[in-house]
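Q: Start with the shorter request: fold the first protein.
A: Done. Sequence, then structure:
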Amino acid sequence: MRSYSKFIANCLLGTLLFAGMPLVSIDSAHAAKADEKPQQKTRRVPSMSERVFKKLAEAQEAIDVKDYNLAIEVMRGMLKRSKSYNGNEIGQVHNMLGYVYFLQEDYKGAIREYAAVVAQGDKIPEGLEVTTLYTLAQLSFVEDQYQDALDYMEEWISRSTNPDPASRNFMAQVYYQMKDYSNAIVQMELCINIARDRNTTIKENWWQLINFLYFEKENWPKVIETLEIMVRDFPKREYWVRLAGMHGQQNNEIGHLHTLQAAYVGGYLTKESDLTNLAGLLMQSEIPFTAAKVLAKGIDDEIIETNAKNLRSLGQAWQLSQEVDKAIPVFQNAAKLSDDGRIYERLAYLFLDADKYEQCVVAANGALNKGGVKKKQTVYIARGMCLFNQDKLTAARGSFVSCRNESRKEEDTSNTRICAQWITYIDREKNRLEQLAAAAR
């Protein structure tokens, strides 16, 4: 689950930065939208002279052709003569200069210039001041100046009427970077509640962030609650699997199983581990037939690898479903791929139960030849019984003798006694048959 932290971090940075630049525009149009202020309060500010306007237009022309050095030179020259400028004019020069630094990805320089804009106070239009505060918060975030980002954002919120959810989301991301998850949760809950109150869309990455924050605070009910929303509104494999895992972590076996079943029906379980986990839960819940269907389809669709382990699981599911005819060919394929003879041993007993004695002997021999079985004596028993049922008494006796020898070596008194009883029984049966043959002559 800790890999989830890395996933969330990448998601957050991806939403904030693009090619090293903040996604939120620095222009006043965006800030006005974010503010959602019905009407900006009119502030009486000094007017801009024609001389300053023309110099700014000259700088703008240089910006338009991407001659940033010329634009900076023009505006630096203006600032040298700024003693004759009013506060509004000085603010406008710093604002454009900050924009040029921003375009050059010199964020420290941009912050310095934008700070000079807000330093003009009520000498600049209120809209420009509010916009610049928002921009300073974002640029401070980009420069890892998290406390500055929060301070600017708090100031922006205090100047705004009914701030939008995005501003709270931004503050939550700042707190997230500071690892102050408690305050990040406060901001994200505000963000989501504002969006709900306004009946606006709650974005997927908002749910990702708050879900991660709840996880870090080990607020498991909230983690599950948000994941349930995510699988409903943004159904993806990772959310379904994570929700199922959380139910499992909370020992909610029914929730764990039902979540995976719903994800399976929806087509969201696309990895081998997903399907084998679901099949395992179905087996634990004593629903082997459905488990077998899941495994068989996964193998047919080439999602589940056709190896000894997976085939053995499929064979067991069919066997427990009383579908022996389906279990046997699966076990045969699994036995060929297995490194030991354990699956052959299982096959031997399946064939014995099905009265397929020749196949039983072949499987038992396969188990003994491959080795690795837990108790060789039990394989000798199965083989001896199948040989006996084919009336191959001498061969059957030999198998039970091997069983007795192996049992004695392992100090297995129970199987030693069973094999000795079989040997005695076969000897008596041979004697009986010999007597019947002699009497018939």
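Q: Next, the second protein, separately.
A: Sequence, then structure:
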Amino acid sequence: MNRSISKITVLGDGAWGTSLALVLLWNGHDVTLWGPFRENIEAIRATGVNQFLKGVTLPEELRAEADIVKAVADADLLVLASPSQYMRGTLKALRPCFRKEQHRLLDIAKGIETGSLKRMSEICSEILGESRYAALSGPSHAEEVSRKVPTAVVIASPDIGLAVELQNLFMNEFFRVYTSDDLTGVELGGALKNVYAIACGMIDGMGLGDNPKAALMTRAIAEMSRLGVTLGGRAQTFSGLSGVGDLIVTCMSRHSRNRYVGEELGKGRRIDEIIRSMGMVVAEGVKTSESMYELARKCGVETPVANVIYGILYQGKAPADAVRELMTRRAKHESE
């Protein structure tokens, strides 16, 4: 029998992990924040500020820890907050001190690993074995959550009892949580929308206006749902918070790193130059574009919008040529 959750460790000191650590603290929970860079953890201890979440003063009650063994020793819940392409490394570091009878897992990273094409739950199962696992996704920028802006998300797990337990842990007057048992659909919705946010940013960078952005977002939902159902998700999940909800906020917001990458591409900058200029800030959609392209080919699913974004990022296709290619495809029924 699992004990009730009383102590929580967030594994990943980025903006999103830090914001959710704050939500849990505000709800009265005992929270530790672990990060892989000792210098950042020491800076948090010394100044109460995290360089990855600027403008927010962290309360003294939030413990910052650089030693993963110490960070997880007494925890009941581990929030997996590393970017998706670094998740494997974090889980390998966790493995020697992971206790399946003690630690429940909540993934908040949104991506698909390049090469393996695995979702975060699949990587976790591969490295840690059997566990009580859930994923949190939805339209939720760290910058707004940390300011207590009203936000709604979904927590998914095949163990609906765990999803409900975590729902109660996070819920408050500004952070509303729904539950789902469609783990595959929720994980894919949170990951795939980042690809289309790059496309929407590109439209802004090219100064094309609102019509193409609305068309792109609509067709994005069709592509995400088509691929997601093929991979085992449910179609209605992609009409929910982790699908259309997350797509809207990521495609439209000034906070979106993926939309920023697209905007700079639309202005004519090269992708390698853009990534370098972002430093340690991660735009998940760049790598997810590669994974999505390979997954769609492997499954035989048609994803024309995602394909041209992959072409821009990895094959040197010009944004204007990509738009022309999409607009001149053969005529189709809207359901295709």
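Q: Describe the second briefly.
A: The chain is about 50% helix and 10% strand. The chain has two domains: 7-181, 184-327.
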